[in-house]
Each structure stands twice: as structure tokens, then as C-alpha cells.
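Researcher: I've been going back and forth with a colleague about how DNA (Cytosine-5-)-methyltransferase might be arranged in three dimensions. Neither of us has a model we trust, so I'd like an independent prediction. The organism is Castilleja foliolosa, in case that matters for your notes. Sequence below.
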Amino acid sequence: MGFAPSVVDKAIEENVQDHQQLKTEESFDDGLSRKSTNDLTANHNVKEEPDAGNNVNDEKKASLLKMDFSLAEVDFALNRLGKDAVVGQLMDFIFVARMARNISHEHSSDEAIFGIIEKMLQLFEMGFTENEISTAFEICGSEASPQELADSIFDPKAHKNRPPKRKLKDEVAEDTSSPISRTRPEAKKRNSSSAGGRMTAWQKMVDELGGLEDDRKPIAMSMPTNPSRTLTGMVAKPPYFLYGNAMSSSHTSWVSITQFMHSIHPEFVNTETYSALSRIEGYVHNLPTGDRFIISPRGPLSIQEAIPHTKKWWPVWDNRKQLIDINTETSRISHFCERLERVSDPPPEQRRELIQQLQDKNLVWVGRNKLSPLEPEQIEVIMGYPLHHTRVAGFGAERLKSLKQAFQTDTLGYHLSVLKKLYPEGLTVMSCFDGIGGAEVALHRLGIRLKGMVSVEANEIKRKIVKRWWESSGQTGELVQVESIHKLKSSNLEELVKKFHGFDLIVGQNSYCSEDSSVMSGFDFSMFAEFVRVLQRVRSIR
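Model: Here is an independent structure prediction for DNA (Cytosine-5-)-methyltransferase. You can compare it with whatever you and your colleague have in mind.
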């Protein structure tokens, strides 16, 4: 969650005073039907943001109030965390307080509620998600220790026969029957003995491959694929904005995103319509939906189109057409591929299972009975980026991680294509958590001139990738790179708006800035809150 230890300690040590009963909005229907959602002024109680010279706490309070938090919630968080807490930490604390009130008994004392908050903060610091923590409290009860709660998350089977001590209020039903629910099927274990009672060499390697780590997580979302576009008032007016997530996010994460993006439902799309990658990407935006068009020339729509020189080596029984994701674990797979070369074709009954494993690990045929992981250059083509776009990232695994976290530009470009007619002379863009520059690459491929670009990205290597692309792609506008979104205070934003005469498009995506490069970080709510702050401020500057 991003809390500094000192902030957590301070929150734990202080007593709860004036704690208000908080309600949890855990579903789109409950959370979004309370009021009219499309008028920015009416729906979010917009107040003038203080000038840059005013007290920092006043600016934070104004930002939080615009997000539809109550004054009591905001004051409670500010009092407990202090003036040094950033907006994202304050939002996190408010949500934890809501969860604690939701889990506790109605007659619980303030001390008991704050005890729950303390446990939740510790579990969040361990890296558990909101859903995991809520389920742990449901199974173990609010009196359980943090260690017991953590154990129930790590080993739910050991706790499944334990009677629940308390049923959470306002549970969210994870509707996995949704048309866009995409949970990766696990390969079924079967009797793999040969007629002589021995496991075949093929089956041994299939089992070995299945045991390798898979850095992807199943996706289970219950969101509309074709949200109605009935935006009115200030929400529908420029500057336009788009917040996208190219990685899997939970239902609860999308509820939070929608709540703070003017209650606009996300638009989900499968990238297989536009590329050789099959992955769900979600966008929350106020862009028009008419007059969209596909980037031309369009990228490859199948693996064979992306790497045509390998087509002759594909066996007829391997019917894969597209990647289902980008696998970044390659070291042990290379060893497996070397062993595979010495084995003959698999028996028919094992082919289906093998195909599933090859699909999970992004292995392609590069010779007779010879497999190899896709190279970063091949992934760049599939993702819609120029060849060698990520070369400055160094080793293959690091390049693959950068591409995995990026937008598929043919897919993003389809949604941004409406801007070409609206801005025939070009536009100015601010991109928060810009990554490897998916937004600007997509706009460039659409033939839209970038008159000015503010790229906010914490990762130095990714900033180098964007700068190199900007210089090599013949851009005539000005590129401003910002290394931290925290540097975009009100005064800085006003200067940038003045410098570029306003922004026509503000783009954001999930921040992937884990210090451990081996970790594929999930949804970062604190950084999302910073994006919302920047978006609101830029849209309010006249």
C-alpha cells in the first residue's frame, strides 16, 4: 500500500476519536446508482483547489473532497496520518477504515475497530489484496491475530472446515460467468503411463514444463463489455482522458477506478481483434466512440504472421494462433527446449496438454521438433512497437517485462483514433506512468502529430526508451520528461498548462515501479490516486 513505517506507527499509536460510521461501496450497481454520475460539478462536489501558496493540507483535502470522500473521512485520515502523508496514503487509510467498520460488529468499541485497522495495515504491508484480507477476516474473525489471518490466506485449505465467525457486509459476488471472465484453464493431470507402465519422455517434459513458475494470474472480472456512453456535462468535454490497465485487475480494483473516474464504466476489449495477442485490456475514458478506425497498416493477427519464417516448422496438430500473454520467465524453459529436440512427436492423447503448456510459456517452433521462447523483437512486433524499441532495456527478461506491462498499440490506437478528426493539426498529451510510450506510439501510428508531450515515468530505462523513440521517429514537438508524479504539484501543473497552452489528452495506466524487478506488481492504488489528482487539476485549470 505504500505506507511509510513511521506513518503506520503513528496511525496505530493514536486513539480513535470522532470515528464516523463508514459504508463500503462494493459493487458497481450499489456504488454508482446513488446519484447522477455524469456531471462533474454535481457528482463530485467540486470546489476550487487552493492556490499553490496555500497550506499543503488544504490542497490534499480539496483533492480528496473532489473524489467524493466525506469531510469526516478526510479529517479522520489527515489527523491520524499527519501532514507528511501523500494523497494515495490518505485514500488507502480511508478505505482501510471503511473495511474495518464493515468487518466489526456494530456495537464494537473504537478501540476494537482500530485494532482491526492495525491488523489490516499489517496485512496490506505484507502485500495481500483487499479481497484476500476480507476473506481472511470472514474465515478467522476479527479477533484473529495478523499471523492467523496471513496463514489463512497462504493455506486456505487448512482453514476451510473452520466455521466462519462473522459474515462480511456488502460482499461482492465475483461473477465468473461473465462473457469476459478469462480464467486460464489448468492442465488436467492424467494417467500418463505407457503400455509398459512407464511414463513417456514427452509426458515427463510436459509435467516438468507445467511445474515452472507462471507469472500470470487468472483474471476474473464481471464488467460490461459494451458500456453505454451517455456522458454529459463537463465529463464529456475536453480535455479528453483515458486510464487503461493492460494487466489483470480484480473486480474491486475496477470498482475503485470507476468510482474515482466520474463513475464511468470501463470498456473492456480483447486485443486478439487487433493483434496476435489475446489479452483483455480495460479503458476508462471520456472519448467519443463513433468514427473509430483501425490503424493502417495493421499489425500481424497471428503468431505465424508475426514470425512467418517459422511457419514451415509448425506441426499440423499445434493449432495455436495467438499468444495469451507474455511470459517473462525464460531461463529454465530454454533447458526444457533443448531436451525436447531429442524426443519424437508426442502421442495424440498428449498433444492437447502439451499445446496448453506451450501456449502458457510462449514457446514457438523454430525447427523440426525444436522449440524456443519468443524473442523480445518478435514480441515488439506483436505488441505494435518499432523493432528494437526496447533494446536499451538490456537483457531479454527485462525487455519482456517492459513489453508485458505496456499497451498493445493497435488496440489502444483504435480507441484513440477518434482524435485524428478532432485534432487535424495535432494535439498535446500528458501521459502519467508512461512506461515505454504506448500512448505516443499509438498516436504516431495513427498519423496524429504530437505538438507537445509530457511523459511522467519513474523508471529510468523506460524514460530512455521513450526519449530514444522520440528522437528517432522524427517528432517535431517538444518532449518534457518528469521522473515522478509527486513532482507535479499545482504550481508545476499550471506552468505546464501555460507552456503547452493546455492539454488535449491526459493518459494514465497502472504504475509498475516495484523496486524488485522480479516482481510483476499489481494494481497500485496509491499511484492511481495521484493520477486522479493530476487529472482533476489539469482539467480544472483555465
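Researcher: What would you highlight for our discussion?
Model: I'd start with this: The chain is about 40% helix and 10% strand. After that, consider the following. The radius of gyration is 25 Å.
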